[in-house]
Amino acid sequence: MGSADSLTAVRGSTLSPAPPDPYALDPHMTTGSRRAGRAAPLAPAPLLPSPEVLSRLAACAEAADRSGEPDREAVAVLRESRLLALVVPKSHGGAGADAVALNSCVEQVASVNASAAIMLFQHCAVTSRIVENGTPAQHCEVLTKLAGGQWLAASAWSESGAGADKKNLSTLAHRTPDGGWLLDGAKSFTTSAGLADVYLVLAQSQQEPPASASSSRDTGYGAAGQTFFLIPGEHPGLLPDTSLRLTGMRGSATGFVSVRECRVPDTARLGAPGVAASIIARVRNSGATLGAVAVGIAQAALDAAHEHAARRGLYAHQAVRHRLVDLATQVETARAVVERAGRRTSADPGLTTLHSKLAASATAERVVADVAQFLGSAGYVETHPINRFGRDARAVALMGPTNDLCKELVSLPWNR
Ligand SMILES: Cc1cc2nc3c(=O)[nH]c(=O)nc-3n(C[C@H](O)[C@H](O)[C@H](O)COP(=O)(O)OP(=O)(O)OC[C@H]3O[C@@H](n4cnc5c(N)ncnc54)[C@H](O)[C@@H]3O)c2cc1C
What we know:
- By secondary structure, the protein is an alpha+beta fold.
- The protein has helices spanning about 30-35, 50-65, 70-80, 100-110, 115-135, 135-150, 275-285, 290-310, 320-345, 350-375, 385-400, 405-410, and strands at about 155, 170-175, 180-190, 200-205, 225-230, 240, 255-265, 270.
- A four-stranded mixed beta sheet has the order 1-4-5-8, covered by helices on one side. Strands 2-3-7-6 form a four-stranded antiparallel beta sheet, with no helix packed on it.
- The protein is globular.
- Bound molecules: flavin-adenine dinucleotide.
- Flavin-adenine dinucleotide (FAD) binds next to strand 1, strand 3, helix 11 and helix 12.
- Flavin-adenine dinucleotide (FAD) binds near residues 164, 254, 399 and 405.
């Protein structure tokens, strides 16, 4: 079992390197390698994907959709692109992007490869939670790896049976006599399962809600007594399974992750014990929104409509031109609300973020359906990308917080 302070312990200077500790956050990290890892300065992290990165992500999207296999090539491109450094602070080698830049980048990636976009979005979401809630030691050890592209992060909150609002978790975390934790449970719909190097796992760590957690403090998402843990992908107690066959987002490696007899030191805990619900409640205030994925998909559909109109000489018809303008207006409107969420300048930025997901995901589904009609028979061929866009667009509404739950969160204060 790993010691409680295995992340920060100074392992004695011996001639032979210390064996990897599989229970540490980074099992291969020793004091020496930590120093060595800082030696090579990285190129500045970009805020937007380059045309080359977009074209490489576009090239693998179709094949991953056909096979339904985890898109390893897309992850390799994301790692090399340094986009994984997007929201890491500059002090730790990142780009220090705000939510406007993040949403804009995610939109661009989604316009060529929506599966890669949700992997990037979840990575950045976990990174932001570490920035906000991590200890200085966690910042030092983890953020540099996330920024350098060595580590892809995934978010393992959902479970079959937990509900969209994650109140009913069956994954339990118990204290061990050495001050660490023992986790046991099964997660479902984890994006980047089996590809990620670190997972942010949500577990129920206290059976009874603490006395302070009255129902009036219910944030509508998550429950009292839940705790976050950062668990490395190499941990022998963490078992990914990508056998889930999704309708859309098929390259995203969205699958199951079990934690069985999973012992971690207390240093793997992110945030105080039992406070995950309040961390979750603050997420929407960040302005990062899955609406950006929806806007990217809607833009891709609009581009497909223009390609079709140009190829078939349809611009000569006023009705066609006006139809394309109507579609473009919808895309531009959704983009505006996503940008407003990122700016966080509204009276309640958290509400704007929820509205942005509702608005943009509905727009994407509508625009894709309209473009599919516009394409006529060409769009009815199975291999036309519009069909992938439709299946991908549907997923955004189902991703957390689901659109139904967004409506519940917006309306919760009216019912108190
Ligand atoms: C492509 C994809 C990728 C995903 N990636 C991740 C990931 O990386 N990490 C992760 O943790 N999860 C992920 N999820 C899961 C997602 O976050 C959902 O929260 C989870 O799937 C909810 O499950 P459900 O809709 O089956 O819940 P259920 O509770 O079974 O919901 C059934 C229906 O009831 C509605 N509903 C349930 N509870 C409420 C409520 N309290 N108020 C209003 N409506 C409610 C839901 O919106 C849904 O329409 C992903 C899902 C998809 C489709």
